[in-house]
Amino acid sequence: MRIWMAAAGVGLALYAATAVGQPVKKGTPLTLERVFASPDLGGGQPQALRLSPDGTLLTSVRPRDDERNRFDLWAMDTRTGQWRMLVDSKRIGSGAELSEAEKMQRERDRSKTGKTGILDYDWAPDGKSILVPVDGELFVATLDGNVRKLDGSKGALNPVVSPRGGFVSFVRDQNLWVGDANGVARAITTEGGGTVHFGEAEFVAQEEMHRRTGYWWSPDDRLIAVERFDEAPVRVFTRASIGATGTSIYEQRYPAAGTPNALVDLFIMKPDGSGQVKVDLGPDRDIYLARVDWTPDGSALLVQRQSRDQRTLDMLVVDPATGQSRVMFTERSGEKSWVNLSDAYRPLKDGSLIWRSERDGFGHLYRWKDGNWAQLTSGDWVVDALVAVDEASGRLVFTGNRDGVLERHLYSVNMNAPGAIIRLTEPGWTLSGATADSTGTRFIISRSNPTQPRQTYLADANGTRIAWVNENAMTGDHPYSPYLPLHRPTQFGTIKADDGTTLHWQMITPALQKGKRYPVFFMHYGGPGSQDVSRDWPGNMPLRQFLVQQGWIVFQIDNRGSDNRGKKFEDAIWHAMGSVEVDDQLAGAAYLKTLPFVDPAKIAIYGWSYGGYLTLKMMEQHPGVFAAGISGAPVTDWALYDTHYTERYMGDPTRDAAAYTAASALPDATRISDPLLLMHGMADDNVFLDNATAFAAKMQAANRPFEMMLYPGKAHGAAREIHPWTTMLDFLDRHVKKSGVK
To answer: pLDDT confidence of 80, banded at 50, 70, 90?
Structure first.
C-alpha cells in the first residue's frame, strides 16, 4: 500500500539557494506560505543518482531554475567534483501529452507525480551513452553532448539498454519492442491489446509488490523473460474522477480484496521474439509473480512465486531451454503471519545465493549453497537493503538498524567468515539511501538527522567521504538558514504498550514557559511497512517547525504493526487492523496527559491514508479522549482496497468476513461525537473516494455533525498543497486552540 502521510515532502526540490524576492532576515518566523513555496526549505536534492559503469561520472536529474517541475540530466566528474549538464530536456523534448499508460505508471511511482522532462535514464554498459526518456519518447545521449531520437519509440514504457549493450527495449501498445542501438525497434510480441499486456507489471505488482517491470534480459543478451498478464478476470469498477471543470468516468479494472487477480504467465524468448518457451509456474493459476532474475551466467532463470495468501514464497529455478521449473527452497510464514517480499538478495557466480529472510523473527542475511543455509547476520535488529557484493573478497555491504531502531547505517560483513559486522557510516544519522558500483568500491550515501536536512556524498569502500554530491549546509544562502535560529530540537523517548512492548516516540515542543500548558498536534500513520519515529529530517520538518512556532507540541509514536522492529512487532495486526495500533496510539495520548506542560483537553489527532483510517478508529473507540480529529483519504472499508495489500494482513474477506467487519470504520461511524474534519481528493485512484462518501453517508443518516473538504482533480497526495493545511489549521483553531493561528 504505497500511501504516504500528507506533507511527507512538501514543496519541490530546487537548486536555487534562496526564494524569489528580498533576502529573509535571520530569526524570521516561518509562515505557512513559505513552507509550501519554492525553493524547498530542506535544500535542493539530487534525484535518480547513478554511477557510470567506470565510476568516473555521477549522474542525477535536477529541476530547472526556470521551470520547477521539469528535470534535466546532469553529471559530476568524480575526480574533480565538477558538474555539467548532459541533456537539456527542453532542447530535445516536445512537451507532448503522455500516454494514459505512462500516466498510470507515474501515479504508481509517487516520486514522479506532476513532474516532466528527464525523470529516469539507463547507462549503456560501455559507459559511452545513456538511454534517456523525455516526454514519452526515447533518446540516446553520448557524453560529448550529442543526442539522437530513437524512431518508433513514442509512448515507450520501461525502456532499458540490454546488459551487453546490443539492444534497446521498451513496452508500447501493450507489447514488448526491441531494436538494436542504431535501428528502428519492432514488436517482438503481437498479441497485446484489450485486456492482454506483455512486458508490463500488473497493477498490484506496481502498487504493492514494488515490481515496476514485466521483462528481464539475460546477462548475455541472448534471451528475454517476458511477463504476459490478462486482466479479463479482474472486476471492473466505475470510478469518477471529479475535476474543477468536469468529471471523467473511468472503467478501471481493480482487484479488490477477495476478487480475482489478473492471470499471469511468463515466457522466455530470443530478442527477435522467436523460440518462445512458456515457464512452468505450477498448476495453481491464482499466484503472484513476485520477482524474476537471471543467474549471473544466464544458465537459469530464478522466479519467486508467492501464494495468494502470501504465507508461502517459492524460489523456482527455470531451465530457459524448456521452461521446466523446480523449487530451490521455500519461505513459509508462521501461523498468524505472512512472508514479506524483499529486494535484498543476490545470485552469485558460484551458484549460491545471498538472501534476506525473517525466519528467525528479524530480517537478516543468509547464504544458500547446495541446499544448505548459513546465517550471516543475527540479532534483534533488521537488515533492510543489500547494497553491494564483492564476490572476490566475500564482502557484503548492507543497510540496517543494528545500532538502534532510530538510526539506519551502512554495514559490511564477510560472507565467507561471518562474524564481525563493521559500521561504515557515522553515528547520529539516518540513511535515506545508499547505492554502489558493482563490487562496492564507491558508494553514494544520503543521510539526515533532526538538525540537518538530507546530504549526499560519494564515499570509498570504507564509507569515508571522498566528495560532497550535495553538502546542503544550512549556512549562507541556504533556504532554511534564516529560520534556523528558531529551529526547535526533536526529543525522543519510549513508553510501554499494554503487553510490555517498547514503543518509540518523538516530540518537538515550543520553548516552554513555566506553568504554561500547550495543545498537541498528534500525528500518526501507523500502517505496516512504515516507520515514522527516526533520527532524521523528515520532508515535512519545516511544517512541523511552523506548527511549533504557532504554539503546538508536535508528537508521533510508532505503534505495533509498523516496520523495522521484527515480525512479532509487525504481526500484531494480523486479521486485526484498527486494534493494537489504536491501543498504542492511545497509550501515547495517555503519556502526553501526564506531562505538566501538555494541556490534556487540547490534544488533536491527524493522519492521512492509513493514518486517516486510524483517526476514525481512535475517535470511534475512545470518544472524549481527543479534542478533535482530522482524517485524510481514509480507507473506511478494507473490502474496497486491493488484494495483495489487504489480504496479506486481513485474509480473504469471503472467508474472514468477521475480521473485515471488525476492522471497518463504517459500522461504528456514528459513535464519533468529537469534532471531525474529513478530507479526500476527488480523483484518488488509490484510496477511492467511495471510502469517504460511504463514511459521510453514515454520519449524515444519523444526523451526526462533522466537517468535510473535498479536492476536485486531486489524487491521493492532495495534502501536499497549502489549502488543506489552511483548512486544517482553521478547523483546529475553532475546535482546539480557540485563538488565532496565522
So the answer is: confident
